[in-house]
Amino acid sequence: MFTSRQCSASADVLGRLRSFYRDLRNHALEFDPSIPPEPGFAIDGGVALGERRAGDRNLLIRVTKHTTMTDHGWHIWTFPAIEP
Questions:
Q1: pTM (2 decimals)?
Q2: How far is the CA of 6 from the CAs of 15, 19, 23, 76, 83, in angstroms?
Q3: What's the distance, CA 3 to chain centroid?
Q4: What is the pLDDT of residues 12-49, one digit of tens each?
Q5: Any idea where the domains of the chain sit in the sequence?
Q6: What SS3 state is found at 68?
Q7: CA–CA distance from 57 to each of 8, 15, 77, 78 (Å)?
Q8: CB-based contacts of 59: which residues, under 8 Å, 6+ apart?
């Protein structure tokens, strides 16, 4: 049984996830070890948000020479068919 506190936490988590998906509709996460740090986003660098390109398809990430996609990777890095 859920308490009201657990329900509000779940609603908060779902809200954050929806916001994350909404932000990525126009952007894709890109991994490249040469990307410099960005305060408030990637303090160690290596990750950036890039403008979405046609080649990004329905992925949350951009596939580059620094990414190796597996069948499982294609599944977890694709936008869900129905957003939560």
A1: 0.76
A2: 14, 20, 26, 26, 21
A3: 29
A4: 899 999 998 998 999 999 999 999 999 998 999 999 99
A5: 4-76
A6: coil
A7: 33, 24, 11, 9
A8: 28, 74, 77, 78, 79
